Amino acid sequence: MNHGLEKAAKKKVAEKADSDDWDEPYQPDHRTGVISGIWTRPCVFSQQSKEVPEMYQDLVKLLAESRIPTVIMRGGEQTDVAEKLAEALFPFNPDPPSVIENFNKDDLEHHPRYALGLKDDENDVHIYAGHAYYSLPMGRSATDKTWHGALYVKALVSDKGSEQYGNMMEEFRFMEDIEPPTASTWLVTFQIAWKAIRVAWDGYKELKNILEKKKEPSYKVHYNFLDAQLQTIKIVVPAGYSPSDANFFLREAVAQAMKNLSNNKKPDFSDASEALTQYQTPTIILTDSTLIAGEVTTETMVVVPHH
Fold first, then answer.
1. In the chain, N or C: fewer CB atoms in 10 Å?
2. How far is residue 235's CA from residue 281's CA, in Å, rounded to a whole number?
3. Directed axis angle between helix 243-264 and helix 197-213, to 10°?
4. 9 compared with 61, residue with greater pLDDT
């Protein structure tokens, strides 16, 4: 935690909200969230390189945990909030303080701070985000750096905005109770980072259908949520199978989903290169595994994190 960076990010959001001077949504609920720490693989977010896996995932997680919509309607289209925020918040790769002569934390070239405000078409959702950060060298090469940063998000959401978002995302929310197993088994958690929000929505639906049909062996989906381009899925592995087996099972299902999408879907991408990029196989990460003993409560589960 870095209170100085968090304070700077929060101040930047306040300044942005004052300068935008939008009319508030009707009787809004105020929601905020903050994270700070190290990004080990940072990169600027641009049209040429629109993948910021580590930072994008943290943004989506922060929005979701803060109950802030990850998708809003802008210009009549669904807008990926985290993607738009990333474009504004991660535009510049600064030099580390150790190589800057007369480093000054208040100089925006030395210690950048950015903010962005977004609102939906109906003025039911206002979202602001700020980022304050600086670069740290890792000591291996001039380009091998990390960022130490803080993200602060703030949203004003009307009851109507909350209801509309809930309705929009209802089909991307699935959770089923786990029946006590008769033998020890694994609950394995994955994150799938799709390449674009339109592909994420189609991919979620296609993958859900495939997983429901794949009955041999009997893997069971316990949890399946989609927030913007980031899908979190938890799978109960059959007795006698391992997290590695679940990893292979899911990757095979995702590959089939992508094949089906490529053959059957024709989204209106702006150019051919964009279409090729979006239909690349998404990034799949096994994030943790929980060993569930037969006929025991959750208090006796053993969690094995994966990094």
1. C
2. 20
3. 120
4. 9
pLDDT exceeds cutoff 80 at 17: yes
Same domain for 96 and 150, yes or no, is yes
Same domain, 106 and 153: yes
Q: Report yes or no: 59 and 114 within 8 Å, Cβ to Cβ.
A: no
Confidence category of residue 56, pLDDT binned at 50, 70, 90: confident
Through-space distance between the first and last CA atoms of the chain, rounded to whole angstroms: 20
Q: Return the SS3 of 204.
A: helix
Domain count, the chain: 2
- Position 193, amino acid: A
Show the tokens assigned to 91: 């535009």
Contact predicate 81/128, CB 8 Å: no
Which tokens is 153 given? 């998000």
Give me the pLDDT at residue 74, please. 94
In whole angstroms, give the CA distance from residue 50 to residue 44. Answer: 8
Task: Using the structure block, give the residue that is written with the tokens 């909350």.
Answer: 162
Beta strands in 120-229 (DSSP E): 125-137, 145-157, 173-175, 185-193, 220-227
Residues 162 and 281 in one domain: no
Q: What is the pLDDT of residues 248-281, one digit of tens each?
A: 999 999 999 999 988 875 555 444 444 545 567 8
- Are 76 and 118 part of one and the same domain? yes
Domain end residue (candidates: 168, 191, 217): 168
For the chain, give me the number of helices (H) and strands (E)? Answer: 7, 12
Q: Domain check: are 257 and 298 in the same one?
A: yes
Find the domain containing 248 and state its range: 176-305
- CA nearest 73: which of 13, 118, 26? 118
**Half-sphere exposure in the Cβ direction for 220 (13 Å, CA):** 14
Q: CB count, 10 Å around CB of 250? A: 22
